[in-house]
Structures are given as structure tokens and as C-alpha cells.
Amino acid sequence: MSMNGHFKEVIPVDMYTVQLCGVLHEQDKKVMTLLYQPLVGAFAYSLFMTWWQEADAYKRSSHQHLMNITQFSLKDIFEARKKLEAIGLLKVYKKEDEQSREFLYELQKPLSPYGFFTDGFLNIYLFNRLGQKKFIEVKQSFLTEKLAKEEYKEITSSFSDVFTSLHPSEMVAKGYMEISDSTEEHLFDERTDNQEISLRSFSFDMDLMMADISSFIVPKEEITDEMKEAIMKIAYIYRMDPLEMSAQLQNAYHLHGQLTVENIRKEVQKWYRFENNDGLPSLAVRKQPVPLKALHGKEPATEEEKTIKFFEEVSPYQMLELYSGTKPIEADLGIITHLMVDQKLPAGVVNVLLDYVMRINDMNLAKGLVEKIASHWARKRIQTVPEAINLAKSEKKKYAEWQEKKSASSYKGRRGAAPSDSNRLPDWLNEEQKSSSEKSGQPEEQENKKWLNELLKGL
């Protein structure tokens, strides 16, 4: 960009408004100062902190005002803004007409200390910036000692200890309908915290589970703190009590000779299907949450909106079922669980990812490719279907390179083998390809179009 190239993007009289995506806490200030500032620089850090304070006021301001209070040039502000966008701390929206241009700056929550130091990208970037010694010092500043709870007896009151249950006469249907309507249609605040799935409402007695496990069958050192966290998530998904989980842990260790998250999931899935007549945990059939639906309560007017509506109204389980024509296999359901629990991607976003990978990979759900793209989307904090589609469009060259590496690895050593010519991009990702295929009238394309139309009729 030339010295004055930023004036094509923003000028001093352009207005802007700042809002927060979620709630920023004191801990986030420390993360911003010690972890993000070395990566984005002082200008970008200062700009973020300034906008943080302005977000509370929620008023329109001009970029000239921003130049005055920061004492930065417009060029410095624009370059700092770009850094915040690139690192996932800012989303920018623009509306303009012939007379004016206005921006909405939406601040994103920084990663938690744990999320940052296990990111696999930002932590390496910070290590290279600070050097080993300083990196370790900064990392240790976020470590906290926990008191040994074994010396204490828990006396926390439960809900039922404090609050009385409702009398039947108080349970008026109309009132509950109003509660449901108000929370879905008129949200108090649609901004999301982008935090991990909360397990606080799910009671799981880890001590009881540990006490029930025989040390003759499973050595206690096999169950690490990291393993316990994974066990909690699995128990949450499948609604297991401690004794049920204990039995499956012992079964997994007996059959496989070691405890891994994958082995535990495999045995729990078998157990769950047996106990529930081949039923599914509720997580696998969830759909896009209402607050994250771009077309909630709206009729799609364009082909693109029909596609978005489709991804928002089906579950990932239904997506896999539609592709295979039968019940999804356990391995594929495990991938969905990983995407929704570990990567924290909503159901609609998972649908976009599944559709993309299946289409470019000859209808095979390649776990490695799925996880690589999912990790990228999670870092970008993708939460809605339009966001997922737009990012896939902008990054399709990068994903193609990942796919080529995977294909080269898969076919290495197989004489005469070559990647399938049937691999193609989804229609929603390549509009030019879509129009050309429609003109050609190929049977496969016509069949796909008919299939999608039938699906949309049923929504």
C-alpha cells in the first residue's frame, strides 16, 4: 500500500461505533498487555484498549476524534487496525452510500492464558519474539497455585437447599411460553462470550468415580488431570454418572491395555448405543443455536440464503446421514463430537465444514483435514454460517494446499494411483463453477440440485 493508500479505505470524517463481542474482564487486560502486545505492537495494543473504553459508551465518533485522543496518524490507526483483525481481536463491518461511510468495530475476546499457551501458533510466535528466558517468565506469571482441597470439607449449598420448588398452580403454560419467546426472539444481548461449553450445570462426582475404579485393573496414574478433563466432557455429552464412567474406563483399559481419550470415547459410544437402542447423545443432533442463526424467522430470498438456511436448520448428524444414505459410523460421530466440544464450533458451522471436506475429498470425511480446518476456524472464532462460508471462500487456496499435501501423502507408494477427478468445490464456494455446471446439465449436478431442493422444501 502506498504512503497515502489508507485514504482509499478510511478518512478522518468517516464515523465509527465500537461494540464488544462478549464481556472483557481484568484478566483479559493482563493477557492483552503481556501476551498480545509483543505480537501486535504498542500502537495496536493502545488502539484496542482505547476502543475497549469507548465500547461502554456505544456512541458514534469520527476517525478525526480517534486521531485526537490517541495522537496517532490515520495511517498508524489503519495499520494497527489491520493487525488486530489479522490476529483475531477485531471484526470490521462497513456500510456506505454516496454521501458517507461508517464502520462498526467489534472487539473480540482475547484467548485465555491456557488457550494462548496451547494455541500451537500464537505461543510459538510469542516465543520467537521474546526468547526462551523471557517467554518462560511471562508464562509463569499466569500460573496460580491452588489450595489443596483435600484439607477442606465442601459445604456448598445446592439449588434445592435454598430455593423451594414451584407449586403446580404457579406453572402457567402461557408464562413459560413468554419466557421462551423473549429469550429467542428478543435477546437482551446477542453478543457471545466465545467461551468453552459450561459444565457447571452438570454434576459429576470425580472422587466417587476414582474410588470405584479398581487399582488392580486400572493404575491410578493412568488417569491424569488432562484425562479427567476429557472424562468430564465425555460424561457431559453422554450424560453418564460416575459409576457408569468407572465401568467404561475399566473396560477400555482391559480391552486396549492403555487409557487414551480415543479408547474411552470408543467404549462409551458402544455402551451408549447398547443402552439406548442405537440412540444418539443429544449433542450429535443439535442444530445451530437461535442467537447464531443469520436467517432466523426469515424466508431466504436468494440461492445463497437458501444454502445458509439449509446449514442452519439441519444437524451435523443429518448432514452425514444425507451424504451416506445410512446411519453415520462411530468414527464420523467422534469427529462431530471433537468439532463441537473441543473446537467449540456451533452445529451450523460444523455443517459447512462437513460439506466442504466431503465435496473436495471424494465424499470421504478425512479426519486430519477436518481437524486442521476446524482448528483454523476455532482460532478465527467462527460462530455463524455466513462467517464460515465467507472464510472458506477467502481461504480456499490455503485449504486446497492442505488437501494436496494430504492427497500426496495418501497416494504415496501406490503405483499409478492419482487423486480422484471427482473432487470438486461445493457450489456455495465457487459460483463460477456452479453456473457452468448448471449450463452443462450433467446428470450428477442435476441430481445434486434436485437433492438440495428436496431438502429445502422440508425445512
From TrEMBL:
Region span, Disordered: 401-459
One Pfam family per UniProt: DnaB_2
Domain DnaB/C C-terminal: 331-389
Taxonomic superkingdom: Bacteria
InterPro entries: DnaB/C_C, WHD_DnaB
Residue intervals of the Replicative helicase loading/DNA remodeling protein DnaB N-terminal winged helix domain: 26-268
Family: Belongs to the DnaB/DnaD family.
Record's protein name: Replication initiation and membrane attachment family protein
